[in-house]
Amino acid sequence: VDGRYSTEDIFRGAGANFDDVFSDLFGRRGGRTTGGFDSIFQNLFGGRAQGFGGFGGQRGSDLLHETFVSLEDVLHGKRMELDLQKNVDCPDCNGSGCFPGTSKIKCLDCGGQGQVRISRNMGFSTFVTVQPCGKCGGRGMMIEKPCKKCRSGKVKGTKHISFELPAGIDNGDYVISGEGESVLDGVSGDLIIRVNVQPHPKFKRDGRDIFFDAQISMMDASLGKNLEVPTLDGFSKITVESGSQPNTITKLKGKGLPGRGFRGRGDQYVRLVVNIPKKLSKDQKDLLKELQDSFN
């Protein structure tokens, strides 16, 4: 710069003060740039750093819909029908944004390319950069005569969509691409489905497995019994062996839930909860006393 620094000085720093180099290049002290890389980019090229291929393409915002599902829905899947309040194509201009009977014209500043080349002289070098066209916003086309109804190609309306929540779904967010807000000449946002699995009145869930507490009497636990227990898809029979202890667990294989990425279903576990009577008649107490004496 001005003959004071050679290329070797600039890249090696030999005998050169980098604050002076930055000051000569960018018109300010090197140690006092406040915007990081973007500030340097702006000084060099006259704009903020842009991602490659990002000219013109605006993206619509995402939409969020929260839904609640049961364990039965997790087992079988669920068909969803939604009426979304969102931007839809204007009926007058069919989403073009142009007055009926007219169409978009090519931007004269960029020749329809959506980008322009900017040359900047920096010392003995010339930097050539490509930037979005400021006149057409990087689109390459312009609306000469806007639609009177919308002026943007979009109006507020309702769109009906249907989709399937798959079996094995869990709590979390699921994305339906392109069903968010739409923008003129841009990319539509996404629809985010936030799934909440509701607690079940009978079953507890742990991943793909479910748990059920079967209430039995003290006599059934002692003498044994064939017992019918509910499952998510009907009923199954289990055998309570004589002398079963409280909290004995029986597994019903394949009676749990499916899981995404897994084959088959999980299991259902049935826990025996033995109910001890709180009040007994005199005759009942005598019988239990007699039973107790028989064990001695």
TrEMBL record:
Membrane-traversing stretches: none
Domain CR-type: 77-159
GO terms under cellular component: cytoplasm
UniProt GO molecular function: heat shock protein binding; unfolded protein binding; zinc ion binding
Biological-process GO terms, alphabetical: protein refolding
Keyword entries, A-Z: Chaperone, Metal-binding, Repeat, Zinc, Zinc-finger
InterPro entries: DnaJ_C (IPR002939), HSP40/DnaJ_pept-bd (IPR008971), HSP_DnaJ_Cys-rich_dom (IPR001305), HSP_DnaJ_Cys-rich_dom_sf (IPR036410)
UniProt KW Zinc keyword: yes
PANTHER family: CHAPERONE PROTEIN DNAJ A6, CHLOROPLASTIC, DNAJ HOMOLOG 1, MITOCHONDRIAL-RELATED
Name of this chain's protein: CR-type domain-containing protein
The organism of origin for this protein: marine metagenome
Biological classification of the source: unclassified sequences, metagenomes, ecological metagenomes
